[in-house]
Structure formats: structure tokens, C-alpha cells
Design goal:
The protein is an alpha+beta fold. It has one domain: 2-Layer Sandwich (Pseudouridine synthase). Helices cover about 20% and strands about 30% of the residues. It contains 5 helices and 13 strands. The strands form 2 sheets. Strands 1, 2, 3, 4, 5, 6, 7, 10, 11, 12 and 13 form an 11-stranded mixed beta sheet that branches. The protein has a two-stranded antiparallel ribbon with strand order 8-9. The longest helix is centred in the C-terminal third of the chain and has 13 residues.
């Protein structure tokens, strides 16, 4: 069982258990939960964020930090607040610089799992559409061929259901909301992504004999954007110091429960019927 960091925000009465996925003397990789910001958001400054919580623990000498002799932690890449999965932190500034160089040159392999609404006859879909912030909708990204920044994502269909697809997403650039904006452009919005046109997934829409118990209200199988940073493959800083070290590391985060449950019910009630004629 992996070690768990326990972080809390007294101001909002929120509590998080965050698994440590990998650690060496340069890196700390965490399984970020959905809904937790990585860094402060100027539009919502009151919301807790992971870096704030970690730095607070470093300053007050929390046990997990003292055991490691930590006095520095900084995130090296971004994950949307609503997404879950692998997040890598640098334990020192040289490591931060080295990883920033890797991400800047698009070297790390980032693999996301995404559950979307829609269908496709193709097994792979590449989107090479520039994106930029919407001038009238703060926090919303849109495809913008004239003023946008270069953005590319490769999509592979892992599993097809009636009206839904389970995709593997490989962003080759790291723009904010890149996967979400590209899926919106492809007319395959993420399940649960209201900002980009993807409604929640309800069991009642899948199960024809669905009956709700008296006095109960139905809860969606997945209500947040169904996007999970599943894998990250990068070159470990300091690997060149050891000739027996291959230099790369694959970091993996297991699916969160809501995504696991959603796919389970899609397999049960929305499996595609194969035409055998």
C-alpha cells in the first residue's frame, strides 16, 4: 500500500488523502484528487490549493516533511483542477529547472483516460487545433486558428459504447484545458464537463428498469469532467549519475472510484452490439 499524505483546510473544512505514487531524492509524485487546485486561482483566491497546503506543512514542520528533510517542493506541470491523477513535484530548484526543460520541449509522455459522449468510426483521432482563452468567458478555452497557441492532442479509442467512448489522450503540448477544448472541438465532450458541453452520466439513462427508492434522489455516476492523468513517462533528473540507471520512469495513478464505476455500468448497460450478419 502506498504512503498517504493527509492534508486539510480548516478554512473550508475540507480534507484530502493523497497517495504518494513515487519518490526519490529529486522527485515526489502524487495522485492528485479531482477538485483540488494545484496552485492559486486568481478568479477564486479563497479556494484551497495543493501547493498552499504542502508549503504550509513544510513551514510548520509536519511529520511527513521532517522525515524527508524537505524544505522545498514545487509543481513541474499542470493538471486541470477537475482532473485527477499523476502530478510530479520537484524537491529542489535544479530538478525544477531540469523538468521544466523537459516539459517545455514536449519530451515527457502524458497519457490520460477520458470518458466522452459521442461516437467515432475511427480508432484514432488527432487534433492539431490552436487554442486561446475566450475573451468574454474567463476560465474557458476555445479553438482559435488566428490568435491561438499551437496545441496538439492524439486520441485513441480504447472502448466504444452506445453513445459513449473511452479514450486514451496524449497531449503533445501543455495548454490549459487543452484536452477538454479539443474534445469540444471534435464534438466529443467529456462526461460531466458542463463548461464544455458534457452533461453528467446518470444510471437511469442507461438502465431501462431503473427504479429509485421512495424518498431518495438520484446521484450521477460521475458529475465532474471524466478526465484522469493515468500515466507520465519522463527522464529522471540525476539518472545520468548512475550508469546502471535507464534514466526514465513511468508513473501511474489508478483510476478514481467514480470513473471506475461509470465504465463498469457502461459495460453492463451500454455495450455496443456487434452485427454478426
Amino acid at each position: 500500500m502506498s504512503e498517504i499524505l493527509k492534508l486539510s483546510s480548516p478554512a473550508t473544512a475540507e480534507f484530502w488523502k493523497i497517495p504518494i505514487l513515487f519518490e526519490d531524492r529529486h522527485l515526489l509524485a502524487l495522485d492528485k484528487p479531482s477538485g483540488l487546485l494545484v496552485s492559486p486561482d486568481r478568479r477564486e483566491p479563497e479556494r484551497p490549493n495543493l501547493m498552499q497546503l504542502l508549503h504550509r506543512d513544510l513551514e510548520r514542520g509536519a511529520d511527513w516533511a521532517k522525515e524527508r528533510g524537505l524544505n522545498y517542493l514545487m509543481h513541474t506541470h499542470r493538471i486541470d483542477p477537475s482532473a485527477s491523477g499523476v502530478l510530479v513535484l520537484a524537491k529542489d530548484k535544479p530538478t525544477l529547472v531540469a523538468l521544466a526543460s523537459q516539459f517545455g520541449s514536449e519530451q515527457p509522455v502524458r497519457i490520460y483516460a477520458a470518458l466522452v459522449r459521442g461516437a467515432s468510426e475511427q480508432s484514432s483521432l488527432d487534433c492539431d487545433a490552436k487554442i486561446s482563452p475566450h475573451p468574454l468567458r474567463p476560465g474557458y478555452m476555445r479553438v482559435d486558428a488566428r490568435n491561438g497557441k499551437r496545441s496538439r492532442t492524439e486520441f485513441t479509442v480504447r472502448e466504444a459504447f452506445d453513445g459513449f467512448l473511452l479514450l486514451e489522450c496524449r497531449p503533445l503540448t501543455g495548454r490549459p484545458h487543452q484536452i477538454r477544448a479539443h474534445l469540444k472541438h471534435l464534438r466529443l465532450p467529456l462526461v460531466g464537463d458542463g463548461l464544455y458541453g458534457g452533461p453528467p452520466l446518470w444510471l437511469s439513462t442507461l438502465k431501462t428498469e431503473y427504479r429509485l427508492k421512495p424518498g431518495r434522489s438520484e446521484q450521477p455516476l460521475i458529475a465532474r469532467p471524466a478526465l484522469h492523468a493515468e500515466q507520465l513517462i519522463l527522464r529522471r533528473p540525476g539518472a545520468e549519475e548512475n550508469s546502471n540507471d535507464s534514466g526514465s520512469v513511468r508513473l501511474e495513478a489508478p483510476w478514481p472510484n467514480d470513473l471506475t464505476v461509470a465504465v463498469k455500468y457502461l459495460r453492463r448497460y451500454a455495450a455496443r452490439k456487434v452485427n454478426t450478419k
